[in-house]
Amino acid sequence: MPPLSYSVIIPAYNEEEWLPRTLAALKNAMEQSSLRGEVIVVDNNSTDRTADIARKQGARVIFETVNQIARARNAGGQAARGRFLLFLDADTLMSPAILKKAMANLAGGRCCGGGIRLDFGKIRPASAQIMVDFWNWISLRFRLAAGACIYCLATAYRGTGGFDEKVYASEEIWFSLALQKWGKKRGMEFCMITEEYIASSDRKLNWFSPLQTRIMFLAAFLIPFAPYSKTLCRLWYKRPS
Questions:
Q1: How far apart are CA 217 and CA 171, in angstroms?
Q2: Measured between alpha carbons, how far is 230 from 6 in angstroms, rounded to an integer?
Q3: By CB distance 3.0 to 4.6 Å, which of 78, 90, 119, 189 could disulfide with 197?
């Protein structure tokens, strides 16, 4: 059996609705890869069938009791056995082309990690699409990975200490900056994939009104202490009852 090349880590809290689609798309992408990988689903204290669904679809399940995205990512990263790591949100669909490109970047020896632009499909209202387009511009301009899909060398993940567990949101931004710093010291780049977009759900835009979404999003990124407050980061944690 060939060695394990990569690990895909999916943090998941009450994801029984979206997780089957995410795992099915990921399985298809992995089957078209020449590299051998594993899937780790981090059950972040779910109260639904998230863990059962993950096991039935062949994923390793890790349990993280503290409901925090950074902790869930780190629980999976620390358990991963692959040389390359890919962190994928539970409502994000991996394509064969994106997986192949991410793995090729890491295998080439010049890339320590990277991200990709987001595609939420047809979004309404138009102001929501403007926010997504603005984020994609920021992401490429400053080489900041969106949390929906981040990839890196396992050595880089461990060398940076992983995701900052002091914050409840924006952990992917700080991790991107840490990876850039780690890579620069070694003559490596943080590589944004520009040939493709990765499909993710627009469910947060449906859970909250456009005004609520804009206020919570901007507060989390513009108020200096906001990422350290789970209350102020409720866009990432609050679900409709």
A1: 14
A2: 31
A3: 119
SS3 string, 205-219, reads HHHCCHHHHHHHHHH
Contact 79, 6 (CB under 8 A): no
pLDDT for 78 equals 97
One-letter amino acid at 79 equals: A
Angstrom distance (rounded) from CA 154 to CA 85: 6
**Contacts for 44 with CB less than 8 Å, ≥ 6 apart:** 11, 12, 13, 64, 66, 67, 68, 69, 71, 72
pLDDT at 124: 61
Reported in sequence order, the residue ranges of the chain that DSSP labels E, i.e. its strands, are: 4-12, 36-43, 60-63, 84-88, 92-93, 111-119, 149-153, 189-190, 193-200
How far apart CA 193 and CA 116 sit, in angstroms, is 5
The segments of the chain whose pLDDT lies below 50 read: none
pLDDT of residue 239: 74
Q: Which CATH superfamily is domain 4-201 in?
A: Spore Coat Polysaccharide Biosynthesis Protein SpsA; Chain A (3.90.550.10)
Give the pLDDT confidence score for residue 144 in this predicted structure: 97
Q: What is the distance between the alpha carbons of residues 5 and 196, in angstroms, rounded to a whole number?
A: 22
The pLDDT value recorded for residue 129 is 79
Any residues with CB less than 8 A from the CB of 222 and at least 6 apart, and which? none
Q: What is the pTM of this model?
A: 0.92
In the chain, domain spans: 4-201
